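Try this one yourself first.
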């Protein structure tokens, strides 16, 4: 966590959602001047993302950046996300590991299952994504605020990206991708196995589509 926070560009406010961790995540974040919102128990990635969105909407930020704290995403790329949003006028900018460096050690699920799931999400949403599951994203705050009711409808506890893109496309939000380079994971482990990864995303898509 510290190696990520130490590389944050000047002027960026940090809000960390601590999803029931038992280590020193919150303490480290505060030592770098960040604010911490702590879930008393682990609620899943989806719940953490929504908590972060709601916290950011309480402030007058122009752009909300979402990135992982395990070191795979380089905070130095944040200005590129912001500049792309400003120059294109889109609502969401998504980092693409496929357009950038989908490094050789990428999990099997990402190299094999992700392209098919991304294709399915594109068919449903009309988007033209190459990497629907990348967690490095930028959101125009005013756009999220205008559809705040959609955030309350989200139910997926873990694979929120699939549900998010479907709901955001229905709300009329526009999306563009930029290439990013992915580093090796600095801390933490992934527990998303091949079957769990594919089934989790598929379930999120089906559940969202079944809602009226």
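Now uncover the answer:
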């Amino acid at each position: 966590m510290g190696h990520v926070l130490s590389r944050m560009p000047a002027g960026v406010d940090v809000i960390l959602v601590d999803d029931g961790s038992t280590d020193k995540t919150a303490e480290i974040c505060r030592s770098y001047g960040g604010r911490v919102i702590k879930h008393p128990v682990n609620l899943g990635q989806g719940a953490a993302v929504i908590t972060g969105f709601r916290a950011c909407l309480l402030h007058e930020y122009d752009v909300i950046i979402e990135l992982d704290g395990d070191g795979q995403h380089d905070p130095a790329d944040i200005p590129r996300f912001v500049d792309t949003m400003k120059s294109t006028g889109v609502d969401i900018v998504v980092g693409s590991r496929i357009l950038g460096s989908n490094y050789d050690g990428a999990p099997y699920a990402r190299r094999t299952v992700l392209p098919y799931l991304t294709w399915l999400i594109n068919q449903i949403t009309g988007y033209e994504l190459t990497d629907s599951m990348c967690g490095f994203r930028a959101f125009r705050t005013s756009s999220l605020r205008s559809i705040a009711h959609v955030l309350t409808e989200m139910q997926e506890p873990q694979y929120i990206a699939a549900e998010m893109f479907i709901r955001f496309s229905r709300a009329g939000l526009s999306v563009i991708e930029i290439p990013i380079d992915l580093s090796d994971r600095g801390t933490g482990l992934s527990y998303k196995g091949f079957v769990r990864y594919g089934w989790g995303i598929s379930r999120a898509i089906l559940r969202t589509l079944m809602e009226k």
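Discussion: The chain has a mean pLDDT of 89. The domain at 61-210 is CATH 3.90.550.10 (Spore Coat Polysaccharide Biosynthesis Protein SpsA; Chain A).
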